[in-house]
From TrEMBL:
Name the UniProt record assigns to this protein: Outer membrane protein beta-barrel domain-containing protein
Organism superkingdom: Bacteria
Length: 60
């Protein structure tokens, strides 16, 4: 039984800030446009991928 599709399409957006000393923060969001499951089931439903990513970094 196939559970999911092999390819996923989505849109990505993000924002970041880097200070003069090289310290920075970053945030991104991925919104899935395409439904993931091949066939919707009663237990899993019909869903899309969504992801949030946050990071702190230092560039020297």
């Amino acid at each position: 039984m196939k559970f999911s599709k092999k390819v996923d399409f989505g849109a990505v957006g993000g924002i970041g800030y880097q200070s003069k000393i090289g310290l920075g923060i970053d945030a991104r969001y991925y919104y899935g446009i395409q439904k993931v499951s091949e066939t919707p089931s009663a237990s899993l439903g019909d869903f899309k991928n969504n992801t949030i990513q946050a990071s702190i970094f230092y560039i020297f």
